[in-house]
Design brief:
The complex is a heterotrimer of chains A (375), B (272) and C (405). With 375 residues, chain A is mostly helical. Chain A has 16 helices and four strands. The longest helix of chain A has 40 residues, at 183-222. The two termini of chain A are 56 Å apart. Chain B is of the alpha/beta class and 272 residues long. Chain B is built from eleven helices and ten strands. With 405 residues, chain C is an all-alpha fold. Chain C has 18 helices and three strands. In chain C, β2 and β3 (356-358) form a beta hairpin. Classes of the chains: A mainly alpha (375), B alpha/beta (272), C mainly alpha (405). Chains in contact: A-B, A-C, B-C. Chains A and C meet through α2, α4, α5, α9 and α10 of A and α3, α5, α12 and α14 of C.
């Protein structure tokens, strides 16, 4: 790999980690779409701040534009609270409006400068190495790397320092408020970080990849673990993996780097979604199939038990009866269920009828007491 | 239709409902005679709402059969009226009271036909019955909780059903509305209609209802209030459940049939 | 200017096509959007429209044509696949709808951009001209597009009208619809399909990035003006058509102004205006009501003060008091204005010496106010504000007793 390629990858990985750290909390707080809203609505902020500073990587631009993001969130909340619109409609109204404003400003007034609409969506990662940061005449590396590295550190620091507060406010905002942790302040703190990250990343990778990196890796990580710390680490790692994979893909097909990275996020998620141990689609389907039969066997045991010693026992315990009109099973389903229940020793055949074993009775009792079905 | 004297209003046999392989209802049998006011009771999570929804075919069942007036539910759907929980809809929806009540006629109207004058008149009559006719043109978001419940009730009335299922109609309504509702239910009963109500308030059961089903994932007991609504059964449905869980650990010998018949061991089979 | 524009609209083929097409798509999007907003699926529109991009590019790559019907079909299929995947992820995992939406939106859109960059490099930039699908270009609309839009849009509106009461019931109370025997699943899929079609026919004009706003905003605006579903849908369709027309015409006549953002800014302006100025739900109306209430309360307060003072005398209707005294009792009650109002209502009179006293009628009214326990902010003029506690959702009622995951 050439030095330029390494620099590009480094910027992408920093972005991925920065996004994953805040994205984890967005996903857990059911605010994933906020990343979409914020990353779109910062555009007019960026344009206006650019007209003032004339420098896309000026810290003032970053702060000014990030404020637009936080403002969007506040505006959506105000609209929702006024009960004139539901939250989803408020969001779907506010951010396209601000984004449109940004696009019109760019195409009308900034057409000839380093800001165009395609770059807004996709960034210009390929050119990032050409924009160098010089301190006292010495080249210290690409600006984008310093910017995203800095934002990554800020996010890591904020999450590290306020880990306890973020965790509590995420899982139980009520309790957090009662303990004096000011969930509103934490909420807006998080929104500020999201905005900051989106603004910083927008020049390098474009807003679509910001959304993908903030949602995809945390979503995948959430299917792999139950612990918040593990989830944060996993999100960051999966994000970095997706960045590398996307970079490779972009080189292979000679296409947009940011687009390829978003696709790679999708691939990483798809793999986890299908194959995650325990929670992946394959594992779930397998378990459901197995459980379906075990469930049916227990259902059979309960049915027999409910009617045991009743006047209708003789009728209710006939195999024929099961796929008759009362229970409503198909003959095939009945056959397999009876076979499984017999194999498990829950029932034993007695002529045309079925008799419950001691084991079957115990299983029925356990199931009725609300336990998860296992045989 | 089948002979009205011998068939039950509702007959549920061996109904099992599972949500993601977790049992919500286990092998429930239930028969409701015609012309009764029946309360379905049980602790939270006992599956009361699920039972109604399963009967109405709104949730998939793992096993079991439902008969309404002796025929499968799908064949006799026109005999059934439904009052869902008030909180299950968005009361900000842009529509009027009259419009909501007319929705009760949509089932009989069929595809493509619009409600007309006849439906409008029926809706007004139903609204008058629940004392809400003056509100006919009101936007539904302007109603109080009790008024919302009355509107839902009116919507069920225009269904002109023989069997009504009502999910917690007394939840969060004022005392006046509660009395009005119960009067209405009694009037329905007097017309030999059957009303099945998910109910919470233990205090009012004997006063309001003549039949009761106690439910806790499985059916605990079902029958006339005076026979079924006993302390013993209530304990089985509401309390003592945790104790029993511990005693019924996998290693323990299961209770013998004698034990169960005496209601010992918690899973006694009480039948009317 | 205006007559010229009108003349152009009639005579100029391009402008006429643009105006008609944009109005038509606004109409369809607005009407369907009303249902999307009511079913709280506003953001699904965002996901579907973004997800349509790879469908458009793939359709072009496979067929090599840019025939409107082909691209629209590709867009619809991709949008459909995305919404199915969203459903699959939500049903089978612990992830929530917002996460699934955002994920599909960004991944599909990224795929679209990747494919676009690839064909641009292989076939030469601009050859495909597909970038116009990002932010839309009304000026590029031709007769073929118009026909496609009109036919598809017409089908959507006809189906919507035909299944009107079913869709209404589905959106308001799906459980009740199910109990009546309506095929809720099928209707749900049908309504979502109509929404997808409404979105894809607008993509060429408004663009994939902003099409969702044309779904949400007209309904949001219309909701402020009416409480009836029929009017809401008509009004939303009207607002959508108006913004499409105005936006497309502006962007066609001003250089370097992409159509999508222009249309969205127009519909946003309409929505903001509606939020502010709608007669009953509008912000201004709410302020006006609150202001009137406060004035009434102030007047009541002065009336009560006068009454309390008068009540200390043997003959209440004879006792007169200085304005200063009243101002000391209720410093912020706008005493002079309140007194003028009371005088207007015949409850108080000003004597020649500038002092004020209650009339006989005023004594009665004052006693009433004081007996009512007001006016002290707690019971603003005894207004009946209803005891509505509506809209509180007790959560969904899936058969999930233990909140099992």
């Amino acid at each position: 790999m050439s030095p330029a390629q390494i620099e590009i990858l480094a910027i992408a990985v920093c972005t991925a980690v920065a996004c994953a750290l805040v994205g984890t909390f967005l996903v857990l707080r059911r605010l994933a779409m906020v990343s979409d809203a914020i990353s779109h609505s910062i555009l007019p902020g960026i344009v206006v701040a650019f007209f003032v500073t004339r420098d896309l990587s000026s810290p003032w631009l970053v702060v000014g534009a990030a404020a637009t993001g936080v403002l969007t969130v506040a505006l959506v909340e105000a609209l929702t609270r006024s009960r004139r619109l539901k939250e989803d409609a408020a969001m779907g109204l506010v951010f396209p409006a601000l984004f449109s404003l940004g696009v019109v400003l760019i195409t009308r007034y900034a057409g000839n400068v380093h800001l165009d609409v395609d770059a807004v969506l996709l960034g210009e990662l390929a050119y990032a190495p050409f924009n160098r940061l010089e301190i006292a005449g010495t080249d210290v590396g690409p600006r984008g790397l310093w910017l995203m590295g800095g934002i990554m550190l800020i996010n890591a620091l904020a999450v590290g320092l306020f880990f306890k507060e973020l965790k509590l406010a995420t899982f139980d905002a009520g309790l957090a408020a009662a303990l004096g942790f000011a969930p509103v302040a934490i909420h807006y703190g998080l929104m500020s970080l999201v905005s900051l990250t989106a603004v910083g990343a927008f020049d390098a990778v474009g807003l679509i990849l910001v959304v993908a990196l903030m949602i995809g890796p945390p979503a995948a990580a959430y299917l792999l673990t139950d612990r918040l710390t593990v989830m944060l680490v996993l999100s960051a790692s999966l994000g970095a993996v997706a960045a590398a994979l996307g970079f490779w893909l972009a080189t292979a097909v000679d296409g947009s780097i940011a687009g390829a990275m978003a696709v790679a996020v999708g691939v990483v998620f798809a793999v986890v979604f299908l194959a995650a141990p325990g929670r992946g689609l394959i594992a779930v389907m397998r378990r459901r199939r197995r459980q379906r039969w075990e469930f049916a066997a227990v259902m059979l045991a309960i049915h027999l038990w409910q009617h045991e010693g009743e006047p209708d026992e003789a009728e209710e315990s006939r195999v024929e009866h099961l796929h008759g009109k009362h229970v409503g099973w198909t003959p095939e389903f009945t056959r397999r269920t009876v076979a499984l229940a017999t194999r498990r020793g829950l029932v034993e055949p007695a002529g045309e009828r079925l008799r419950l074993t001691e084991l079957g009775r115990a299983a029925a009792g356990r199931a009725l007491s609300g336990a998860v079905v296992e045989v | 239709m089948t002979d009205p004297t011998t068939t039950c209003a509702v007959e549920v046999t061996d109904l099992t409902v599972a949500y993601r392989e977790r049992p919500v209802l286990w092998d429930v049998d239930l028969s409701v005679p015609r012309g009764k006011l029946l309360a379905i009771m049980g602790p939270n999570g006992a599956g009361k709402t699920t039972l109604i929804k399963a009967i109405l075919g709104l949730v998939p069942t793992a096993a079991g059969r439902v008969l309404v007036h002796g025929e499968p539910y799908t064949a006799n759907r026109h005999l059934v009226g439904y009052v869902p929980q008030r909180g299950s809809v968005d009361w900000d929806f842009p529509t009027t009271v009259l419009d909501v009540v007319m929705m009760g006629r949509y089932g009989t109207l069929g595809w493509l036909r619009r409600p007309g004058r006849r439906e409008r008149d029926q809706a007004h009559v139903a609204l008058e019955k629940v004392g809400m006719d003056v509100f006919a043109d009101r936007q539904i978001s302007e109603l109080s909780g009790g008024q919302q419940q009355r509107v839902f009730l009116a919507r069920a009335l225009v269904q002109e059903a023989q069997v009504y299922f009502m999910d917690e109609p007394f939840q969060g309504v004022d005392a006046r509305t509660e009395r009005a509702i119960i009067e209405l239910l009694k009037e329905l009963r007097a017309q030999d209609r059957t009303v099945v109500v998910v109910h919470h308030d233990l205090q009012t059961v004997t006063e309001y209802f003549d039949w009761v089903t106690l439910l806790n994932v499985r059916r605990i007991a079902s029958g006339p209030v005076e026979e079924t609504f006993t302390e013993e059964n209530l304990r089985l449905a509401y309390g003592g459940r945790v104790e029993f869980l511990q005693r019924q650990a996998p290693a323990d010998p299961p209770p013998t049939p004698e034990d169960r018949d005496h209601g010992l061991g918690g899973y006694g089979k009480i039948r009317p | 200017m205006m007559p010229e524009l009108l003349h152009d609209l009639v005579a100029d083929y391009t402008l006429r096509t643009v105006a008609l097409g944009s109005a038509a798509l606004g109409l369809v999007a607005g009407a369907l959007g009303a249902f999307a907003v009511l079913r709280q699926q506003s953001l699904l529109g965002d996901a579907v429209s973004h997800a349509a991009l790879p469908g458009i590019v793939l359709a072009f790559m496979i067929t090599g044509t840019k025939a409107p019907l082909v691209l629209v079909l590709g867009a619809a299929i991709a949008g459909w696949v995305a919404s199915l995947l969203i459903m699959l992820v939500v049903r089978t995992t612990r992830l929530k709808t917002d996460t699934a939406l955002g994920l599909m939106l960004s991944v599909f859109f990224g795929l679209g951009m990747l494919l676009m960059s690839v064909i641009q490099r292989s076939a030469g930039a601009g050859q495909a001209g597909l970038e116009t699908f990002l932010f839309g270009q009304a000026a590029a609309l031709v007769g073929d597009d118009l026909v496609t839009m009109a036919v598809l849009g017409g089908v959507v509106l006809v189906v919507l009208a035909g299944l009107w009461k079913e869709f209404k019931l589905l959106s308001f109370d799906a459980a009740f619809a199910g109990a009546l025997g309506l095929p809720v699943r099928v209707l749900d899929v049908a309504l979502t399909t109509l929404l997808v079609i409404a979105i894809v026919i607008g993509l060429q004009t408004v663009g994939v990035v902003l099409m969702s706003a044309l779904i949400v905003a007209p309904a949001a605006a219309a909701r402020q003006w009416t409480d009836k579903l029929g009017r809401l849908v008509l009004l939303a369709g009207g607002f959508g058509a108006l913004s499409g027309l105005v936006g497309a015409v502006i962007s066609s006549s001003v250089p370097r102004l992409p159509t999508g953002p222009t249309i969205i800014l127009v519909i946003t302006a309409i929505t903001v205006l509606s939020l502010l100025a709608a007669p009953r739900r509008g912000v201004l109306a709410a302020w006006w009501r609150r202001w009137q209430q406060r004035r009434e309360l102030q007047t009541d307060r002065v009336l009560a003060d006068l009454y309390r003072l008068a009540a200390q005398h043997d003959e209440p209707a004879r006792a007169a008091h200085q304005v200063d005294v009243l101002q000391t009792m209720s410093p912020r009650a706008g005493v002079r204005r309140s007194l003028a109002q009371l005088a207007g209502r015949g409850l108080a009179v000003e004597q020649d010496d500038g002092q004020w006293r209650l009339t006989r009628q005023g004594v009665g009214a004052g006693r009433e106010v004081v007996d009512r326990g007001g006016p002290d902010g707690r019971d603003p003029a005894g207004r009946d504000r209803g005891d509505s506690d509506g809209g509180d959702s007790d959560g969904d009622h899936r058969p999930d007793p233990g909140g099992a995951r």
